């Protein structure tokens, strides 16, 4: 926000319009999601759907966790990525000098991972129900429980990683000035961090819904290739805006499934 005029990669779009627009959309979206969409989805789940009790309870838990995720991601901690720079802008109400970025990221990772667990359980149970009894992929209840424990521990390791190893770059002030990535003294470290973060987000969206694979794949590509140098500023600006909204409004796509 400190520089004026035209910036590299069309970042003046983000500075002047897109960051504030994304923040406004999220402030409108989360109360709509929490107070209108979620109660309707829960009503349909509980009263209108015919599924086994274990799957129904898991879906209800998944939606309940999404409420907390939407409130946190839509009100308290609104992140916006400045691709292809390894920079996260925070516009939520807790984004100030009194709250540690490490703590805020760790909390976001916790809710992101937690919402995957009940959905994974539902996918596993549905998969097991449609298998033939003599299938070699058919698992006992004990094996299913063990599998869920392993998957949960693997996902939880991401939360630990954010809490234990996420640090602000020593070049933070320099990077904020929108310098070129090649000039950053910690370029390699920053790119490794952003690559691991993009892989984590890609895994979360893949397990949640196939509709979110494409934006995460693009995020990965932008982090590890120089493709941003050949695309127009208009495309880059629209992509950043679309990506952050797809991550923030995740429940919209999931909830629509129950309406049709």
UniProtKB/TrEMBL annotation:
<feature type="transmembrane region" description="Helical">
    <location>
        <begin position="238"/>
        <end position="259"/>
    </location>
</feature>
<keyword id="KW-0472">Membrane</keyword>
<keyword id="KW-1133">Transmembrane helix</keyword>
<keyword id="KW-0812">Transmembrane</keyword>
<feature type="transmembrane region" description="Helical">
    <location>
        <begin position="145"/>
        <end position="165"/>
    </location>
</feature>
<feature type="transmembrane region" description="Helical">
    <location>
        <begin position="206"/>
        <end position="231"/>
    </location>
</feature>
<feature type="transmembrane region" description="Helical">
    <location>
        <begin position="103"/>
        <end position="124"/>
    </location>
</feature>
<feature type="transmembrane region" description="Helical">
    <location>
        <begin position="58"/>
        <end position="83"/>
    </location>
</feature>
<protein>
    <recommendedName>
        <fullName>G protein-coupled receptor</fullName>
    </recommendedName>
</protein>
<feature type="transmembrane region" description="Helical">
    <location>
        <begin position="28"/>
        <end position="46"/>
    </location>
</feature>
């Amino acid at each position: 926000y400190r520089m004026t005029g035209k910036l590299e990669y069309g970042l003046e779009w983000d500075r002047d319009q897109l960051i504030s627009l994304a923040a406004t959309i999220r402030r409108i979206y989360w109360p709509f999601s929490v107070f209108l969409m979620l109660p309707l989805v829960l009503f349909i789940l509980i009263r209108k759907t015919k599924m086994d009790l274990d799957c129904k309870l898991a879906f209800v838990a998944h939606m309940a966790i999404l409420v907390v995720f939407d409130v946190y991601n839509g009100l308290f901690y609104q992140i916006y990525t400045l691709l292809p720079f390894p920079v996260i802008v925070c516009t939520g109400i807790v984004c100030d000098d009194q709250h540690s970025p490490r703590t805020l990221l760790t909390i976001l990772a916790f809710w992101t991972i937690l919402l995957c667990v009940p959905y994974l359980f539902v996918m596993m149970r549905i998969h097991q129900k449609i298998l033939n009894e003599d299938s070699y992929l058919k698992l006992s209840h004990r094996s299913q429980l063990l599998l869920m424990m392993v998957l949960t521990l693997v996902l939880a390791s991401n939360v630990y990683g954010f809490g234990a190893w996420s640090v602000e770059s020593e070049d933070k002030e320099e990077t904020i000035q929108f310098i070129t990535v090649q000039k950053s003294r910690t370029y390699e470290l920053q790119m490794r961090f952003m690559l691991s973060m993009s892989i984590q987000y890609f895994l979360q969206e893949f397990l949640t819904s196939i509709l979110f694979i494409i934006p995460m794949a693009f995020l990965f590509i932008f982090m590890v290739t120089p493709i941003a140098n050949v695309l127009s500023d208009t495309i880059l600006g629209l992509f950043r805006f679309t990506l952050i909204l797809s991550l923030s409004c995740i429940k919209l796509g999931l909830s629509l499934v129950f309406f049709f």
